[in-house]
Amino acid sequence: MTILIKVLQFFLSLSILIFIHELGHFLAAKAFKTRVEKFYLFFDWGFSIFRCKKVNGKWRFKFFSPNVPEKYTTTEYKDAAGKKQKKYDPIELSTLSEDDWRRSDETEYGIGWFPLGGYNKIAGMIDESMDKSAMQQPPQPWEFRSKPAWQRFIIMVAGVTMNVLLAIFIYIGLLTKEGEQYLPTAEANKYGISVDSLAYEFGLRDGDKVLAVDGQYIERFQDIPMQIILEKAKTIEVERNGKDTTIVLPEDALTKLLGKQDANFITYRFPFVVEKVMDNSAAEAGGLQPGDVIIGINDIETPYYQDFVKNVKQFRNQDIEVKVLRKTDTLALAMHLPDEGVIGAYTRTYLPDYFEIETKDYTFFQAIPAGFVKTFDGLSDYWKQVKLIFNPKTKAYESVGGFISIGSIFPETWIWSLFWRMTAFLSIALAVMNILPIPALDGGHILFLLVEIITRRKPSDRFMEVAETIGLIIVLGLVILANGNDIIRLFR
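Given the sequence above, the corresponding structure tokens read:
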């Protein structure tokens, strides 16, 4: 059931993002009186699940209908000046209704069967559809290729713009409704940090208090790992046993951090206060009670929950003594640890029980500038991540994830606030990826249009067809890389 919830959230979020992105292109094209032949959510290769169109003044609907490519006959004639011209006419199809459908100049709206994309088919534009037959006709005033470069530029940039605006609107809504909460680094330092094996290899230790990264104090504790990665940090300053210590990170620190499969590089510590004892567990048999504070295993002191988790598994299938504080008494509870290496007790994980959480409430008007700041900070951070991916030295390409990775970021239960946070993040990611100067992406078209505006020379249709083909190959390669990484991680 949890997998189904994740999948449903992923597809709903993806559908919203694609619809908003393509709506941007659609509205801009319509604003400049450019014909949009098709507006589709998901791809309709071969057939569509649903399509509708205004034909002869009436809306017509089709379900599970084949997507038959339009074909043309060519007729030569002489115009009034005696110059030879070519006339392209659609070939008559088997049914009048389908022929009428194709002759209508209205936009066809539909839902395809392949649920990982969507598109606008704008008349007179070389795009991923690679419809060369339409481009062989004489340019018409309603076509994309007939519009001034500045109008074509706006049409192409409108999709990314809509994704950025979507993220802004989502953040404004979330900040207005829920405000903002985070764990200050100063609060996390109250108990010191807990480190995993990689952080230990770098020189960090349990109990260290993080003072700065490359001399800069990080206000939000959860931002520290990303700050190290995005800014390629060289040093981490910590307080250890009352003394300031500088940890010099190794040269391959960035590569190793990017190769991690989890986010537990450093975490906050807190006491092991028992919240619940499981039935028929070692903890129940030993007499552990809710409210007890676990402070040790045998002769090992474990004043924090993370200490207990790190040490308990070495005693699998053994008799142990768990030391606890119960009010003012210190007790030693005898237990037999099963093969799983767990005693069967849940700790209290509600952070405000241990830390002073920073909370900031916003009015609607205060949330507007804050929403812009969060969005543009997100764009900046994601752009830095993309640059790392294209730097072979970092091996960040090995950590790129595909659809499985994207789907896994959604929570196992449907919480609307988390859903919208994930959607805002993915909207930012989609905007950044689409603006990359790769043919077949919006950024490639935008690059060629900027060159055209500056040089006043329009690339030929043949050049655009070749560039689009190369771009599609690059994009396909990136998709294979991302989803291939997912598959490799599953096997690992």
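DSSP finds 15 helices and 18 strands in the chain. Try to locate this feature in the token string yourself.
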